[in-house]
# Entry
Amino acid sequence: MNNKFRVFLKGIFDVSPLMIPVVPFGLIFGVLSIDIGFSPIETMGMSLIVFGGASQIVLLQLFSGGASSLVIISSVGAVNSRHLLYGAVVSEHLSDLKLVWKIVVSYFLVDQAFARSNEYFKKNKDKDKYFHLFGGGITCWVIWQTTTFLGIVLGAFIPEKLGLSFAVPLTFLALLVNDFRKLINVIVIIISGLVATFGFNYVPYKAYVIVAGVTALLTAAILTKLKKKNE
Amino acid sequence: MIALLKKEMFNDRIREILSFVPSAIFPAIIFPAIFLDNSGDFQLENNPKIMAAIIAMLIGIISQNIIATIISGLASYWFLIFMV
# Structure
């Protein structure tokens, strides 16, 4: 089998388990969007252009709350600002790609694809490693578009009291299972969570995600430095 | 040579800190989704999400398995809201 295709399939395989909780999330987005009053084409358009679960849900919440376009755009940007950090992490592995391909890859650099491909890039240095991110990213893309579409169609039949939006924090929680065993990571996790929760209503433009992230990263920088001093 | 060595150390340092990005960013989505209600107010009592998230976390730490973490979380959440 062609090595590019093998790496591509590996990307699909690695990301697939993370797609299970995306299914209810996509359905919910489709249902909520129609419920708020967006047309099916607008709803599908959001998933095609934004291609980001958390930010699209934030968009709906703010829109239904009557927020202005400027606030909505800045908030979605703030929620998505973590992708700046994803880009910074992945860029060292993608340095020999052409600009056009970097732009294509960046569209597919969603949470789940980032988490899985970053692990893969750390362990594999072969020249076809990028196809792992394509495989994972395209898998996320297909699942997200399909479930958005199903949400639009099936909207009326999904009971709201199932509370499927709870699958969202569970997905992110599941992505951290390896980090719960490391003390510095646990401290960083708690700091980020507390800053985001207490800053939720006070940080303007829903920028609590980036404020919490930067605070937690600074904490990580200090703690790893202290650890080295004591060694 | 010294310049090269310093540059390498700097890159390792940056890389080390960036390895904390998931731990620094994901909780900012997890915590508000568990502890706050839809209007952004604290919801600490009668909140099945807290217990379900703790169960999911414990299962995750023991199993190191993503699917087990998510399924145990959703299952305990539904058990708490529909059965208890």
In short: The interface with chain A takes residues 15-36, 38, 40, 49, 52-53, 56-57, 60-61, 63-67, 69-70, 73-74, 77-78, 81 of chain B (CB under 8 Å). Helices of chain B lie at 2-18, 21-35, 48-63, 66-82. Chain B is about 75% helix and 0% strand. Confidence is low (pLDDT under 50) at residues 1-5 of chain B.
